[in-house]
Structures are given as C-alpha cells and as structure tokens.
Amino acid sequence: MADTIRCDVAIAGGGLAGGMIALALAARRPELDVAIVEEGASLGGNHIWSFFRTDLTAEERELVAPLIGHRWEGYHVLFPKRRRLLPDSYHSILSERLDECVRAALPPGRVLTQRRILAVGPAALVLEDGTRIEAPGVIDARGAADLSLLDLGWQKFVGHVVRTTVPHRLDRPVVMDATVEQIDGYRFVYLLPLSADRLLIEDTYYSDSPVLDRAAVALRIAAYATHRGWTIAAVEREESGVLPVTMGGDFQTYWQSGGNRVAKAGVRAGLFHPTTGYSLPDAVRTALFVAGLPTLTAPALHDALLAHARNAWESRGFYRLLDRMLFRAAAPLERIRVFERFYGLAPDLIARFYAGRSTMLDRLRILAGKPPVPIGRAVAAMRETAK
C-alpha cells in the first residue's frame, strides 16, 4: 500500500528556490512541519551560486550567511579597452552546502531525494513510487515552466573547477574577462579563485540560441587556461547551464503554464533577473516573504506568491528593454560594446543594476549619450511593445 505523508508545507523541487524556502521556514517558523522533495541525489544539484553583497539586504544576508563558502573583497572586469577593479564584495555558495544545511534544519524523513514527482496540486504531491504528500500548502519550485511563452535570449555557459599544477595567483574573482575571441554573441570568461591552486573557469555566451556545444566550450576553457599560463592537473567538477534572458512575454500565461492554482517559486514563478538570469537574490527574498505570510494554505500561498512574482515582473520592464537593445539592436559580435560601456559607469549604479534596484537616475544615465549600438535599431528596440 502506498504511503501518505502529511505535513504543513510541501516543497516540490530541492534547488536553490525550494531549499531557501525550507531554510527560511525552519528558521522563522519552526513550529511548521516542512517536507521537500527532489528528484536528484542531493538538494541543489551541481551548482556554484554567487552574488554581490549589495544584491541582498542585511536581513537577507543573515539567512544566506551559513551557506557561504567563499568571500572576496572586490572583483575585476576585463575588456579590450577597459580594465577595472570594482569594490563590491563577492560571495559564492556550493550546492553541497545547501544540501547539508537543509538536511540539518529539517527533521529526519522530511528531505526526500531521488524521488520522482509525477504530479503537483495545490495541496498534494504524488510521487512515482505511489507516495502521496498532503499539506495545506504546496509550493512548486521545480524550475522553468513553458519558456516558449516568453521572448528570450540566452546566457549559456560551461564551467570547470580545475586544480592547477602551481598556484594560479588570482586574488579576486574576474566576473567578466571579455578580452577573449567573440563567438556566438557576447562571450566572456568568468573566474573564481577557490583556493591557491583551485579555480573555476567558466566560458559564457549571451547568445540568440540555447544550443550549447559542451565539448567545443571545454576545449576553449583548456585553451584559455593555457593562454593564462595555467597548467591543469585535474578537472574536479563540471557545471553547465542555459539561463533565460527576458525581453518580454506574457507573464500571466507563463505563470499558469507551471500549474493552475499552484503556488510557485524560483524560475517557475518568473523570479530571476531579466538580464543576468541569476535567481539567488530572488530566491532569498521569496523565502523570507513566504516565511512572513500569516497563512500558508493553498489559496493564500498561491495568491501571495502570484502577486509577489507579478510585482517583480512589472518592476523590471527597464531591464527587458535593455535586453531588447542588446539582442535586437546590437549585432551578435558587437554586443561586447554594450557591456564595455556599462562597466565604465559608477560602481554604485552597477551594484544597483545587479540587485535589480536601478533608480530613475540610474536608468537615465544608462541610456544617456550615444548608444553603443546603431541608433536606428536602438530606437526600434525602445519602441517595441513588450508585456
């Protein structure tokens, strides 16, 4: 006979969004019985998530602090005509730490991994093995819904954590090294120094296509290491991904495509930065938002999270406008000029951009002056109607 598990809140999907909600509820609402279900072998999968200190408020940083494995003061950006050290501190989290912290926060038997989810309803999950998980409130955080409903470009990447034969001598992250050959749109290499002889080398593309040739990119990573004078002793870890860069689309239909009347979080709810594709700040904000709700029953959860996600979508039209200019006004191999110009702006403006909190003056400053794209195409992109 199939098992039935009853709890107060059930979370479908043990990625970043679901894991952060579990941690926030455990910390802020310890009286609640919370269960989380993940199809993979561990929560968080195989990821390294990073963020700037200014992406989060003090309260948000408090929630995420136990997860942080690496911190640096400042970061570099490198372009053909601009090299800069920016002051914002930078933080990284390994997915293994998310798994460890959520397992420690929830009671035994409430973290279910390697369990395939067949169906998610407003108040129940059905697993492939017949187990039914019933809860007054369910949150679906299993990743993207129907992305075809959105107007998208793509940020795609392959990253290798490598061990070098001798110390690499990199003291801070390089968030963008765009001095590399431009291929398949805007290309840059992202570097995280994890120890004296361990380094994440991630080759990234702002591309019109979501197709990712991992083998070809892996060869470019090896060539980049050689160019920098690093001899790779071993590749210890590989991560790849294709993130949506949003230019427009129908938010309401996208939300419904993830399940009618089901509460959602993370990318499934459209909660990610439209330009960077990053979802960590939204995951932390959403987790604290959920923990602060007075009622966590299915209708209340659905309506509150829908309003939360819609507010985020509506407040981010400026970033979708910039994305249209990047993908529609700039020729693919000329997109580098947009980023090179942007990184000449004030550090505080850059920080607010990544945090999704650009002021009106920031927006005017970003758009002021001669655009780094053809003027006619820029005007057409700005006039384009987007939801």
**Secondary structure category:** alpha/beta
Q: Please estimate the helix content.
A: 25-40%
In order across it, which strands form the biggest sheet? 7-6-15-16-17-14-18
Beta-strand fraction estimate: 25-35%
Note the gap between the termini. 48 Å
**CATH top level assignment of the largest domain:** Alpha Beta
Beta-strand segment tally:
19
Written description of the protein model:
By secondary structure, the chain is α/β, with parallel strands linked by helices. It folds into 3 domains: 179 residues, 3-Layer(bba) Sandwich (FAD/NAD(P)-binding domain); 98 residues, 2-Layer Sandwich (Alpha-Beta Plaits); 67 residues. The chain contains 12 helices and 19 strands. A 7-stranded mixed β-sheet has the order 7-6-15-16-17-14-18. It has a 5-stranded parallel β-sheet with strand order 9-3-2-13-19. A 4-stranded mixed β-sheet has the order 1-12-11-10, with no helix packed on it. The model has no long low-confidence stretch (mean pLDDT 94).
Briefly, what is this?
With 387 residues, this protein is α/β, with parallel strands linked by helices.
